[in-house]
Amino acid sequence: MSIPLDIAALGERAASMIEELGAISQSPDNLTRFFLTPEHRRAADLVGRWMREAGLEVSEDALGTVRGHWHPAGPDAPRLLIGSHIDTVADAGKYDGSMGVVLAILAMQAITRLGLPRPYGVDVLAFGDEEGTRFPTTLSASGAVAGIFSPANLAMVDADGVSYREALVAYGKDPEDIPAAAYDPDKVIAYVEAHIEQGPVLEAEGEPLGVVTAIAGASRLSVTVTGEAGHAGTVPMRMRHDALLGAAEMALAVERIARADKHGMVATVGRMHIDPGSINVIPSRVVFTVDLRSGSDTSRRDALTRFEREAHRIAGQRQLGVVISAFHEVATVPCYQDLQLRLRRAITDVDHRAVAMPSGAGHDGQAMSKLCPIGMLFVRCRGGISHNPAEFASPQDMGLAVAALVRFIERFQLPHLENDTSGAET
Ligand SMILES: [Zn+2]
Questions:
Q1: Dist. CA 212 → ligand 1 center (Å)
Q2: Cα(378) to centroid of ligand 1, in Å?
Q3: Which of 99, 101, 97, 81 is nearest to 34 (CA)?
Q4: Contact, 111 vs 406, CB < 8 A?
Q5: Which residues, 6+ apart, have CB-to-CB distance to 394 below 8 Å?
Q6: For 337-375, what is each residue's pLDDT tens digit?
Q7: Judging by DSSP bridges, how do beta strands 79-85 and 188-196 pair with one another?
């Protein structure tokens, strides 16, 4: 028998909790909530209170990650981790991160009320440093939970010159305790996160929920094109070596390569600097960036090779110089096949079709994948808008997401996963 759920009521409750959490901000005009600030403290306290009300036992680790424990089989039983983050970017939306924490708490509230006997436990986690907006860190809170926290983080400083270590101590934490924040991999079954999609796919598909196949890997390039400056009025077109026209053609090549890819590759030229940048001078030098993401590392690497070849061909034709340097690379993190299957079944249980898609945005799951198998559930977001105050998920969709999480946990009879295909490319 499955737990009876009032989806509309769950959605309304989620919406009101998100409003309450979204009101905790460093700025009176918008939502800005950075790691280890007084607002982080207030948000963590509120989340802790909700966890207790949901029947969970609450603790907090050395990086301020709030943990709500449900251990029907005792504290030594293996556990399922469900979470997201409560820090935000500057001028953020209310749903990114916070929604995943709220949905997990509501799902656990439904589970604990029924006292489902299970041979495993569930921990709800609310991380405080996903966005990396205060310190130049990457997933430091989930990194500590996964046992991959880099001590170099402690020396990083924020915009006011406050170090990570100082901020941590001011928050009431002891950096010496960080290693103890790590879970024992043998005791963890999986990490699952519900998150706003942050893109337009579910809306276009007309479906409220999606299952993430992989968190896309990314490459970032800096491309410098050199030509020759000249008078805009006197140098005939056929005698020019215009660096900008070469760069523009290369940007179109990036687009062409990404469009031809079958793994949903996305590529963006988001920055372009033109020298000398005068209205009447032929551009002599252009530096632009390429951000390339794909759910397949193989196709991403192929695309990089193709782009390099194209850029040199274009430069050769136009008699320009080109230098390409890669300055950032993150590998794809595949979501565990068995978890994808279970999440898909849970979405079917709430009478919807699961849309499979890669996540182009980064998530705590990237760090958590070093600890255990990961899975992600996406919730439709209006207009695909995120990292923006206009971010919105409907109460109905959130109610369905809570219900899907409950069904997912309910069906999780055994404390282990099947068909181990982790690491397979999707
Ligand atoms: Zn997020």
A1: 14
A2: 11
A3: 97
A4: yes
A5: 11, 208, 380, 382
A6: 999 999 999 999 999 999 999 999 999 999 999 999 999
A7: parallel
Distance CA 382, CA 204 (A): 10
* 265-316 confidence digits (pLDDT tens): 999 999 999 999 999 999 999 999 999 999 899 999 999 999 999 999 999 9
The model's pLDDT over 184-209, given as tens digits with 9 standing for 90+, comes to 999 999 999 999 999 999 999 999 99
Contact at 8 Å (CB) between 310 and 323?
no
Spatial CB neighbours of 43, under 8 Å, sequence gap ≥ 6: 21, 24, 33, 86
The CA 195 to ligand 1 mean position distance, Å, reads: 7
Q: Of 81, 82, 112, which Cα lies nearest the Cα of 100?
A: 82
- At 5, list the tokens: 């759920």
Q: How far is the CA of 144 from the centre of ligand 1 (A)?
A: 17
**Parallel, antiparallel, or unpaired: how do β-strands 272-275 and 188-196 relate?**
unpaired
Dihedrals phi, psi of 106, to nearest 5 degrees: -65, -40
CA of 247 to the centre of ligand 1 (A): 33
Chain-centre distance of CA 195, in angstroms? 8
Percentage helix, strand, coil, to 5, in the chain?
A: 40, 20, 40
Cα-Cα-Cα-Cα dihedral sign, residues 101, 110, 211, 338: positive
